[in-house]
Protein 1
Amino acid sequence: MKNLWTAEEASNYKGDLELRVFSSNLLGRSDELVLHGGGNTSVKSMVDGEEILYVKGSGWDLVSIKAEGFSPVKMSTLLEMAKLESLSDTDMVSGQKEAMTDATAPNPSVEAILHALIPFKVVDHTHADAVVTISNSVNGQEYIAEIFPNFLIIPYIMPGFILAHEIYKMTRDFDWDACEGIILHNHGIFTFDDDAKSSYDKMIEAVSKAEDFLFANADLTFDKIEPTGFDIDKLKELVEKEKGCEIFLKVNQTPLALHYASQENLSGFATRGVLTPEHIIRTKHQPLVLEDGKIEEALENYMNSYRAYFDAFSTDEIMLNPAPNYAVIKDFGVVMFGKSEKESAILNDVIEHTMMAVLRADKLGGYESISMADSFAMEYWELEQAKLK
Ligand SMILES: [Zn+2]
């Protein structure tokens, strides 16, 4: 992984917040670190005698975030909130908003408390492909422990207050100086330091280690495959009918997509879950898989099993439309069902990274993502639902 920091470019940025903007943009430039709104960053700074956490505001992408994209939140409030035995994520969000020193700033990231708990000035968090690929493999726990011996490694916990409180409890008597970073299994990685460059350098170094491991153990080559024919117009018409709106198909027939769609037992292979939890809002837990020409039947089965999944885990949630958001079509490719061209393009990026991770994790012994129960908790999380609006 290339380190993009240059002294020349950095010299255009002065002070804590500006440098925070700069290194956030650098992280965002690599789609192997974060995609479309993924990841978050922060810097702690003294303002009028009070310690403030400037943390990425929701709705901003790291690649293009500016100073006004960071929410200034009082550290003292965040640290008090971390101690609470329980707190709903809605209450956490309103508590964080009340602790903002500028009411016009965007809502702070739901990972703000976690950022506050890390006792270093600069904190970087990404969903680096290489790290989540290894973590989402059947032996991921062992490999991650081996590659990152000096990291704090946390088993999968849903993002939000529960995760922040768990880390608070785990680190009450913790030697932070000996800790090089945090890995959140099935989710991502944190690095931190007292200046923007060191924290960024640590992220690049750590992700490079994971990339080296994959290069040595899970290298991929794709055969040239000619796609077969498929009635794409019929698929579009049927999905539009179920979704009740126009969709903007994006057909992916890159060597990666064709290789992916040519696998044996496609309905078992292509339905093993998301790369990092927030993707589920865009992708759902599983795609529609078409292995023969029977589109109506496959679509109906898909929606029935989505309803069964909803019934199995729901309490008082309102069900989302049960139609799929993308399809994997045997020997044809992968097709996105976005409600706009932009949505299909974003979905395509997310799926490209997921396909690569699945294929590589299979080389490590098998791809394995979060459970159906954890997927449901994320897909129906009130805060994630709000983010999409
Ligand atoms: Zn995250």
Protein 2
Amino acid sequence: MAKVVVAILAAVAACFVILFALSTHSDITFDPQPKVIGISTPVTVRISNPHGVRRITATVEQDRTSTALSETSEGATRIMFWRAHLPAREFRFVAGSSKAPALKEGRARVTVEAQSNDLRGSHDTISAEVQVVLRPPSITTDGFQHYINQGGSELAIFTPAGSWNEAGVRVGGATFRSFPLPGNPNQRFAMFVHPWDTPADVAPVVYARNAAGNEATGHFWFKVFPKRFRKRDLTIDDAFLNKVVNQIDPTGSGDLLTRFLKINGELRWKNNQTLMDLRLKSDEKFLWTQSFLQLANSQVESEFADVRSYMYQGKKVDQQVHLGFDLAVGQHTPVIAANDGRIVWAAPLGIYGNCIVVDHGYGLQSIYGHLSEIAMKEGDLVRRGQTMGKSGSTGLASGDHLHFSMQIDGVQVNPIEWWDEHWIKDHIRSRVNVP
Ligand SMILES: [Zn+2]
């Protein structure tokens, strides 16, 4: 009899040991790692434990005082073998002074603790050192009258205050960085675009955000002149498709038209993305002094934001918007820099063929496409009117011409204003001291 009792006790003890040994730890990670918390900052952690978790708590600690932020729990299960492979779960909570009113500006630590839902119930924790930012940003705007053309450029000045670490101008979905105003660094200025595809009734907004994600916005006086962009049919034939497809994407598969449509759509988007990314290669100073030059004696074949219908064998097969000017002179005409600047791209770029991009500072850049010859390299400084290469028909071009375009902070803009010294005087020089 005693032997049986001993055997049962031994079996129970063995089960206990096995269950205990099979108990697991929780793997906890922040997604993403919080660095700053404010009034109500969302925090997410991922917790994985094959046995699940019984209890999760989030706390914030500052000056040795710990305050609970959030807690969740479920019934304890200690001997559930079959719950062996539970998927990872997310735990979301809000950190900040809305949950912990005693928090003040400075350093703090956010901790999440999870307890395994098994026999041992192991406690695992993860902590993040954070900065508490509670002061809101604020912003005051300039008193200028901003007359803006749809698809055109403008410049605004504003003064962010309070706690902020990012400020600029937003027009619809496009944002434009700001820079310290030369000679008055408490103020900021931003050049921005009312993008051609943003409705004219969308108001530009100046904004300042703090590191905790709180944002202040401000409005200035403005009037947007709507612009009706031209519509053009562009007839394409097999000779053109052959030339373009074999030059831009010689290894592509499918029939000629399919390959062309991929170039005209997907590759166009990708190439514009590459141009947009060049905005980060911009000097924080005016590299130019005079107005921008249009290629001399050139015939304008296409204008900014022409809406093009591509006609093939009598049918419309595609539609794209042409974000530049096509300027034709003659075969292999010298292509000049529109203004002083620094070369930030000098290489083939898909539909743009051999392409040069010149940075003029503060996010303003000019783009030259379809060149037959590039005589510059990245990093070179150029002077206004300096020859940088020769016109051609590389990329998505049927005849020899220069595709000329400009962009501000990666958003392509009508260059026509930048060719006009009066416009520059009224909109740029009158507000910012261009050297
Ligand atoms: Zn063009």
